[in-house]
């Protein structure tokens, strides 16, 4: 390619042999996300399962943090939650959307069993204690996806975490802010989500010179 005097293309071609450091992460399409939200706001999904799914969808919270969430962590007046992250042990405060606040309120007031356990999300059957672990959250989100008719994607909070990061990135939210929202101890961890932003990645593609096309 030296004859076309495009050093940038030569550098780009040389990069094709560089091993990808991260796999490309799947995300929800706009249509599937709408189906999921509609299901959560309807009666086909319980208030508890809707609140869990919407919380993961909109905040990107880890499953362990959803399991550990306590009633005292919710600030209803400010519409936020404040937690100490289970993985990093760092404090994190996140805003709650109207949808999440509504479903949390519906669950706590109308559906949540009476219990001395102050964790927000409890088992539906006795003993009414907190959910066991991240697998409980996975089962909840998997069933919610099924009821929403979104069956071609592996559900779970890891997937919803990636999806939340993608939405923020597409909205031109800076990586540093996304890192803070996701509660990353190391901001470099957020670079993983660069691979999900197809639209912005396409803007980085170099044009092929007319004379080089066959």
UniProtKB/TrEMBL annotation:
<dbReference type="InterPro" id="IPR011010">
    <property type="entry name" value="DNA_brk_join_enz"/>
</dbReference>
<dbReference type="GO" id="GO:0003677">
    <property type="term" value="F:DNA binding"/>
</dbReference>
<protein>
    <submittedName>
        <fullName>Tyrosine recombinase XerD</fullName>
    </submittedName>
</protein>
<dbReference type="GO" id="GO:0006310">
    <property type="term" value="P:DNA recombination"/>
</dbReference>
<dbReference type="Pfam" id="PF00589">
    <property type="entry name" value="Phage_integrase"/>
</dbReference>
<feature type="domain" description="Tyr recombinase">
    <location>
        <begin position="23"/>
        <end position="206"/>
    </location>
</feature>
<dbReference type="GO" id="GO:0015074">
    <property type="term" value="P:DNA integration"/>
</dbReference>
<dbReference type="InterPro" id="IPR050090">
    <property type="entry name" value="Tyrosine_recombinase_XerCD"/>
</dbReference>
<keyword id="KW-0233">DNA recombination</keyword>
<dbReference type="InterPro" id="IPR013762">
    <property type="entry name" value="Integrase-like_cat_sf"/>
</dbReference>
<dbReference type="InterPro" id="IPR002104">
    <property type="entry name" value="Integrase_catalytic"/>
</dbReference>
């Amino acid at each position: 390619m030296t004859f076309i005097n495009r050093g940038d293309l030569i550098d780009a071609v040389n990069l094709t042999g560089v091993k990808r450091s991260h796999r490309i992460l799947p995300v929800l399409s706009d249509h599937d996300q709408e189906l999921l939200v509609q299901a959560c706001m309807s009666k086909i999904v319980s208030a508890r399962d809707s609140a869990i799914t919407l919380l993961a969808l909109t905040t990107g919270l880890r499953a362990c943090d959803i399991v550990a969430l306590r009633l005292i962590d919710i600030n209803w007046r400010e519409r936020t939650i404040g937690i100490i992250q289970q993985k990093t042990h760092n404090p994190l405060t996140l805003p709650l959307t109207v949808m999440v606040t509504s479903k949390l309120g519906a669950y706590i007031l109308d559906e949540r069993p009476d219990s001395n356990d102050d964790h927000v999300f409890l088992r539906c059957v006795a003993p009414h204690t907190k959910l066991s672990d991240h697998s409980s959250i996975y089962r909840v989100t998997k069933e919610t996806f099924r009821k929403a008719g979104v069956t071609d994607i592996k559900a779970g909070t890891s997937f919803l975490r990636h999806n939340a990061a993608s939405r923020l990135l597409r909205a031109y939210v800076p990586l540093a802010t996304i890192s803070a929202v996701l509660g990353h101890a190391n901001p470099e961890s957020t670079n993983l989500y660069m691979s999900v932003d197809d639209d912005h990645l396409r803007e980085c593609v170099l044009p092929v010179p007319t004379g080089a096309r066959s």
